[in-house]
Amino acid sequence: MSTTNVLPPLRSFLADDQFSKAQLLALIDLAINIKKHPADYSQALAGKSVAMIFEKPSLRTHVSFDMGINKLGGHALYLGQQNGKLGERERVSDYAKNLSCFADVIVARVFSHKSIQVLAEHASIPVINALCDVYHPCQALADFVTLSENFPDLSQVKLAYVGDGNNVSNSLMLMAAILAVDFTLVCPEGHEPQADIIEKTKQLAQESGSKFILTNDIDAIGKQDVIYTDTWISMGDEDANKKADILAKFAPYQVNHALMAKAQANMLLHCQPAHLEEEITTELFDSELSKVFQQAENRMWAQNAVLVTLLAN
Questions:
Q1: Is the pLDDT of residue 165 over 60?
Q2: Any bridge partners for residue 79, and if so which?
Q3: Which residues contact residue 119 at a Cβ distance below 8 angstroms, ignoring those fewer than 6 apart?
Q4: What's the whole-model pTM score?
Q5: What amino acid positions are annotated as catalytic residues?
Q6: What distance in Å separates the CA atoms of residue 174 and residue 18, rounded to the nearest whole number?
Q7: What is the pLDDT of residue 241?
């Protein structure tokens, strides 16, 4: 196995708009290769330790990193919510410098992108953004691994995201624009992504020659190959009154068989956890159109590609 020259040097894995098309395609190819030939990479992280900071609870992120690191021959250490929010007990910069004394990589699932930025600034080892309030690059990379496994040419894929403009849709739209994938974002009015992410996506799409469409009109979704959705209720926003208002406002944006047929889409993606009968019907989630568990598995292979690449530099 050769892990050298997989990518141009990559210091950390923080935000989708920091990667080139060549870097992303190389990561996708590597993820698929590791998935097909895991034994070839069983010692890729031998003698390496990964510190995993989790401010927010998780199933797929925790399991996929922990077991993925094990499959690469490395050691993972979970640092959970018992340590409190980053920056409260001690400065984030001190946290980064201390972990750099012991670990070879820091994985961080945090509330604020600022925490990711400070960790990366002060750590002397690579930092991987496993989720923050602005980006979810590990999820987006796994999503494009999944698309690559199902479509022979990514540049011909038409991808739509329907629902709340959040960290998942941010990463998806940025990565789509870099990879020259046509992307349609359908959000209720007032729930669009922040303006700077929209402007970045427009610029990247113009550079790559892809199309980026943002609309509040679910009837304007157009023809799509893939429809992607995510929960309407973000973690920490489960207030009963607020939830009722959101469910009423978002109801026309539910992803179901009727919407799939309207868009002529033949694949459904969801990053999970799914709130069935809210943003998506149970019938569609469990149908043959759904690739959500292939997508979930690919979190591990995509993250392993990132780990192998960062530690090969």
A1: yes
A2: 53
A3: 53, 86, 92, 95, 96, 106, 108, 127
A4: 0.95
A5: 109, 136, 139, 230, 271, 299
A6: 10
A7: 74
Closest to 56 in 3D by CA, of 77, 76, 79, 81: 81
pLDDT for residue 313 is more than 60: yes
C-alpha radius of gyration, the chain, whole number: 19
**Helix, strand, coil percent content, the chain, rounded in steps of 5:** 50, 15, 35
Q: Give the list of residues 6+ apart from residue 170 with CB closer than 8 angstroms, or none.
A: 16, 134, 135, 136, 193, 197
Question: What are 312's two structure tokens?
Answer: 């090969």
List CB contacts of 285: < 8 A, sequence separation 6 or more: 268, 270, 274, 276, 292
Residue type, 214: L
Q: Is the pLDDT of residue 85 over 80?
A: no
Give residue-wise pLDDT tens across range 37-56: 999 999 999 999 999 999 98
- Angle (CA) 230-233-234 rounded to 5° is 85
